[in-house]
Design brief:
The protein is of the alpha/beta class and about 240 residues long. It has a single domain, classed as Spore Coat Polysaccharide Biosynthesis Protein SpsA, Chain A (Alpha-Beta Complex). A seven-stranded mixed β-sheet has the order 3-2-1-4-6-5-7, sandwiched between helices. Strand 1, helix 1 and strand 2 form a beta-alpha-beta unit. Helix 1 runs parallel beside helix 2. The longest helix has 26 residues.
Length: about 240
């Protein structure tokens, strides 16, 4: 069994943090001999910071990194990846949007692929959130030429050497799209598995009403940067 690093970005997750982390820890302890949980706490305004520190004291294989400010989901994920030490990197958010047992579908595939992504085989969220997600996925896939089913489906597992060597620049929610874009650009083979989405039952999502605007700004910045790199390479030629 491969060793595994779980990356958990945390911002204002006080109501569910202890329960979620305890559940993940017990799951890893049961099924993996070598594992770690890296919690990136990003300047929470509730008691999440204190609870993260308590969890690190209660469980020996939990490492807490305090980012000090809310720099974005992508920023927290990138920081967690840099600190990972195990064979695989598995992203899990505190609201547990998927069943952890799906890792058993991914593990055999990682013998042939460098990462495993997912698509939502079931989505019971409200109509507004589903329409917003459909619009974003359609737009991103059209502009970046991506052929995945869902750009921002949460379940993702990477080989550590792959994700640590990927030169990611996005700091916000656009990080999912950037990762898939770079996989395609580098012609890295990946697998996709169907994973039903579980909507959160506690706490409040940090994806606010203005998240789509922020995503579009990140997309525009990424496209500008990509054009700049293309022009510079063209001059060298």
């Amino acid at each position: 069994m491969k060793s595994i690093s779980v990356i958990m970005p945390v911002y204002n997750e006080e109501p569910l943090l202890e329960e979620s982390v305890s559940y993940i820890y017990k799951f890893l302890k049961t099924h993996f001999s070598d594992y770690e949980i890296i919690i990136i706490e990003s300047g929470s305004t509730d008691r999440s910071s204190e609870k993260c520190d308590k969890l690190a004291k209660d469980f020996p294989k939990i490492n807490v990194i305090h980012e000090g400010a809310r720099n974005g989901f992508g920023s927290a994920f990138k920081l967690g990846c840099k600190k990972a030490t195990k064979d695989l990197v598995w992203l899990i958010t505190a609201d547990l949007p998927f069943s952890l047992e799906h890792i058993f579908e991914a593990l055999p595939l990682l013998d042939r692929y460098d990462c495993v992504l997912s698509f939502r085989s079931e989505d019971k969220r409200c109509l507004y959130r589903k329409v917003r997600s459909l619009f974003y996925n359609s737009l991103i896939k059209l502009i970046l030429g991506l052929d995945v089913r869902h750009v921002n489906s949460t379940f993702k597992v990477f080989k550590r050497r792959l994700i640590q060597n990927m030169d990611l620049v996005s700091s916000g929610w656009f990080i999912d799209a950037e990762i898939i874009y770079r996989l395609k650009a580098s012609k890295i083979n990946y697998a996709e598995v169907p994973v039903p989405l579980i909507d959160r039952s506690k706490g409040k999502s940090s994806v606010g009403l203005f998240a789509p605007i922020s995503l579009l700004k990140e997309l525009a910045g990424f496209l500008r940067q990509r054009r700049g790199i293309f022009k510079e390479n063209h001059k060298c030629i």
